[in-house]
# Entry
Amino acid sequence: MPNNSIVIESQNLSKNLPVSTGEKLHILNDVSLVVEQGESVAITGTSGSGKTTLLGLLAGLDVPSEGEVSLLNKELTELDEDQRAELRLSKVGFVFQSFHLMDNLTALENVMLPLELDRQSGLKLTEIRQRASEALNQVGLGERLTHLPTQLSGGEQQRVALARAFVTKPLVLFADEPTGNLDSQTGDEIIDLLFAMQKESNTTLVLVTHDDDLAEKCQTHYKLVNGALAL
Amino acid sequence: MISLIQQFLIQTKRFWRLAETRLLFLALLVAVVAVTSVGFFTDRADRVMNAQATQLLGGDMVIVSTRPIDEAYLKEAEQRGLRTASTITFSSMVSRGEKFQLAQVKAVSDKYPLHGEIETMAKSGGVINITSIDTLADNEIIADNRLFVSLGTTAGDIVQLGQTEKTLAKIIQKMPDQASNAFQFAPTLIMPIEQLPATGLLTGASRASYSLLFAGNEQQVKSFGNWLKPKLKQNERIRTLEDGMPAIQQALQRGQRFLKMAALLAVILAGAGIALSSYSLTRHETSAVAVLKTMGASRWQITKHYLFQLLVVALIAGIVGSLFGYFIQFFLANYLQDFIGQELPSPGWTPVWVGLLTSQVLVIGFSAPHLFQLVKTAPVQILQRASTVSKAPLLLPVFSLTLSILGLMWLQTGDIKLSFYLLVAVIIALAVFWVCALLMLKLVRKIGERWHLPKANRRMALMVVVFGVGLFSLLLLTTLRSDLIDRWQASLPEGAPNHFLINIQPDEVKPLKELLAKDNTEAPIYPMVRGRLVEVNDKPISPDDSKYAENERAQRLLIREFNLSASEDMPEGNIITAGKWFEKDAQTGFSMEQGIADNLGVKMGDKLTFDIAGQRLIETITSMRTVQWDSMKPNFFVLAAPNAFENYPKTFITSIHLDKTKTEVLPNLIKKFPSVTDIDISAILTQVRDLINKAAFAVQAIFLFTLVAGVVVLFAALQSQKALRRKELAILKTLGANRAYLRRNLILEFAMIGGLAGFLAAVLALIAGNAAAYQLFELTPQINLGLIFIGTALGATLVSIAGYLNVRGLLSVVPVSLFR
Ligand SMILES: Nc1ncnc2c1ncn2[C@@H]1O[C@H](COP(=O)(O)OP(=O)(O)OP(=O)(O)O)[C@@H](O)[C@H]1O
Ligand SMILES: [Mg+2]
# Structure
């Protein structure tokens, strides 16, 4: 079943924004790509080339101006915001450059959050807590469960974010410059962790970066130049 | 599955960790405490007043008429299980030998009174007993002491009443409906109603007031009232509780309304705090919402989450606030207890519901618009560097705020029209504040450049307005309160009359004047004749006239007799509103009180005919006056020319101030002038003065809530700007600013904001306070520069302290971490 192994597919994806002069700013042009189950994909390009924009479209966080995207065999342009959200529930994870942990929640509570959101899973609170602390153990923060984000270093916060992203065993993980806010050594540690967890759960990985060395670690490498793919 | 309770506990715990939530809670708490403490107290006081009023009325409901009332009403009421009584009241002469006295005769049925009691004594100053009408023997009647004195009788003597002879059995010490008759100078006589026909006094032509009294539980009375109302004939009226309420209770009721308004002010201020905290909550949670959406949360899930949390916070604030309010109310009630004079009933539940409702309305009305904005956050924002709050449409928040403020005002005042006025006032006040604040900041910016003051910006305008409004209400309350007290005290100076002397005979006027002059207690002595208004411009006038159908006061005036007087000098405190006061030695003309003239529909130049014991006095109105009713001096609706009553039978009246230390004056006076009756009003006076002092305290207590609410608003405002300030400080630090410099700058900025707010608040409070004092009490405007100084200093100090406490933590953060 070849179709089943395709996780993300985009066809002639474009994104324009109206600007004050009445003209349109073209951010993305005609991007078509296919990502298969378990594949790791890197998207690189100079700053302002449209990497983040593309990621947002592929993940269904934003809607394209033209073209089509399907995620997990669902045509995203046919879904409304809530339906797209439901699609992500427990199946799609994110890691951001600036971590985006909830600062009023402890490390454990942050990791519990995606499991709590998924009502269909039917997990009990103790099970959720159990799985979340296992995930934190895996990223080496088993001792820091009750700490608030402000009490953690940047690298530690990103580990919590990794645990949060993987705790649901997602089918797809989107990461936007996950090491952008970290020094190179901490960044390397995070990347190693990321790939290890990706392999273990056979998660499809879409990674935005401007680091070509990092991009080489991925099976596929797309380059964006001025909003268009340059192979 | 996670149970609902688990979810509730988890989420509430997490939500509570947000500083904004705690501020929100604090603001709600202040509002609820203010509303409930005042609510509990006024609820109790209301119920005690109603109980007193029913006693004064003699029943829960009373029908009065100038004609005999249909007996069918009584039958229906009794079938419904109500207790009933009936009375007929009219004036008649009572005589004993050569002595005659006009008395107010009240013929009553067995069960009278339905509420309250008739207290009697066998002789003046004797043991007080309670007398019920059915214990009176045939031919026995009772009367107040003035009748005994003027007829020269003692209990047990026979008097002539109409065609019958009666035994004056007991002296009435106290009876229901007495208060409204305090200035009804004819002595009251009570007789069983069965004895009335035999006297032959009541003929078809007699003027009498008939009433039916009903008593029962609230439900019975209400349903009977509903049955009764459509059946009432044109001349039949239902007397309400308010009619039974004496002036002092009306004053207390007005005081309560003032308390409620003060609480309302605290609520509105707290509302500003809630709006601000919700605003910063929204900004803070924007990225959290975006993250939740990337995880797959639906809009409804997010709405539910935040709405539920807000309502839970409001519920907790409502419960905790009601508890606080309950305890505070006890202090208030204890303090005002002896003044109310009666054991207060235990507090009811109503204020709790009002408190809970207030906090829910506040949170929904003031936070919901922000919440809708929050839920709309696009998930893609999380990928962009700075997450921005999407621009809110202005219509929804404005609509929601207006509606909820109006609702809260209605909830507090129970008066939708008043609420509208208040709302308009609040909106105008806000607009004025906003414009003034912007103008002042512009000015400060110009001056500030030279002095290297912190840059005045829009952010400061918000703080100036928000804190300014808080300070404004405090300062306005303070000035109004002192105005109020000044005014009350001015109207009741130390030497205000505390005794009325009535029934002074013409030949006693001169010696009494001399005696009073000796004691330095001289006061004008007014003649008094009693007359009934029978014609206006030669046309007969009657309480049954259709033009008075809806005017109960006019009806009562026409049933009873007017106290007419004559005076050469205009009584102190009266003000001529039309025409001219009498010339010296004038023989003709009437001077009429404006309000009563309006009530009766008569005007300058109208010809009035009074029937004074069979003689007709016809004069035209030559002037109109206003009268200061609470002056505790004799006041008259109608004054005739100085010598108008030369040839009429009359008595005289005066009011004097008797020093407490001169205990011998009064007994001496009574011994010398046995017919003179003394009415001691010093008790009422102390009561009124007590009311003023205690009401002032109560207002101050509520005023404390507004102060607390103001501080909460201030904190909320500071919190809403914390993130921005954090960034600014980081940038300044990287540019090389040291801590001392930053601290100086911060304090200076806060002092400037507070000073401006305080200045603005004081100036506007001064204007508003003077306008109100002039409007309400006709006080001449005063420019109180001290208030402006205090306002500015208070504002600068408060905002500096609160502001510095709020941002102090930011000063010690290292700049690099600020960039994260
Ligand atoms: N909401 C927006 N309004 C206006 N322009 C936008 C918006 N979003 C993105 N852009 C523009 O689109 C272009 C692509 O932005 P995008 O964030 O995708 O770049 P990027 O490749 O992720 O860059 P970087 O490596 O710096 O993160 C940029 O020029 C950006 O200014
Ligand atoms: Mg980017």
Q: What stands out?
A: The two ends of chain B are 37 Å apart (CA to CA). Residues 179-183 of chain B have pLDDT under 50 and may be disordered. The interface with chain A takes residues 1-3, 6-7, 10, 14-15, 17-18, 287-288, 290-301, 378-380, 382-384, 820 of chain B (CB under 8 Å).
